[in-house]
Specification:
CATH architecture of the largest domain: 2-Layer Sandwich
CATH superfamily of the largest domain: Chloramphenicol acetyltransferase-like domain
Number of domains: 3
Mean pLDDT: 82
Helix content: 25-40%
Radius of gyration: 26 Å
Strand content: 15-25%
Distance between the termini: 73 Å
Largest sheet: 7 strands, mixed
Shape: globular
Low-confidence stretches: 85-114, 159-169
Order of helices and strands: EEEEEEEEHHHHHEHHEEEEEEHHEEEEH
Amino acid sequence: MPPPAIEIRAPEEQQEGTRSQVLRWLKALGDPVGEHEPLIELETDKVTVEVAAPGSGVLAEIVKGEGEEVAPGEVLGRIAASAERVATPAEAPPRAQPPPAAAAPAERASHARAPEGRLSPAVRRLLTERGLDPGRVRGTGEGGRITVDDVLRHAAAGTAGARSVPAAGRAEPGIAVRRVPHSAVRKRIAARMVESLLHTAPHVSTVFEIDLSAVLEHRARHRQAFAERGVALTLTAYFVRAAIEAIAQVPEANSRWGEEALEIYETVNFGIGTATPEGLVAPVLRGAEALDLERTAAGIETLVRRARDGKLTPEEVRGGTFTLSNHGVSGSLIAAPIILYPGQAAILGIGKLEKRAVVIEEGGEARIAIRPRCYATLTIDHRVMDGERANRFMQIFAERLALWRD
């Protein structure tokens, strides 16, 4: 009797609510496989993860094809001893085969029910979650295919109005276009942002102007000493420390809305918004409330470098409770609202630092002075916080930075 096939399974340690799909198989059916050899790449809405072969042999079966969604622990494929016969593509499960050409006329019919084979895994999931009939959703993709945006648009507009929604992004006849296919990460970021803004949390933003004179003076005095210890002292580290003090006095900023109760996190897992070629990710500085300025700066430097090098692990992007987006590094003055990450009640935005003419009072007289200043925004889930609490947070944040002390 031949030895049993070795199952290849998706990692179990996946954050609740995070979706994964097969990005690519690194081996084809019948290829030899060595134990611990990279075999599959899974893509979540945050990072790409390699799945290694759990044993040696040949790749005998692919259960989950490229682009299919997978759940934690789900079987992706099987490895057999080399003596065993490998399933050919013709013997693969029917769902893995391309849809037959005969289905095309039905798919082209106006508002006809979309065949299941023509729906991507993400679209099928959204349709199921919202209880929608695919035959009533107008598809704007190639050949009338239903896209994620089509489902979200239909859900937002209501069934009655969905048929009249114009195709988004369609160019006028005769205008040349260049198509740039979305990556799975980009599409999932888009879906999550739309879901957060339109279907989950009512967003409200408050804007304060921050004086950074004291922070810049402190940084100038300590930057070299930090560098000699191998730490880059960035302004982001100061923003994180000031936000931690504000959270201590306005703890609901570090919480999430629950249907029965507000859940206030007892630790601050601070997300650091970081731009990458695939989009914005927020690696998490864990237990930030227990760190000092130097350890905060060191932790941020490591996370940002790993994010830009594409080396983040799932553990480094899960579990954030509050996020900072330093959009000013690319020249933005104000961004509002900044979309909340699911499961968070607030996100802090920092605009461009620049020298500005301001009116100050000294000795009872007003005069114009030049000061380094920036705008900061706090976007909140208005179910969790009202304007008074959001403003209180920003008052503490602004004062801590303006009166920075060693």
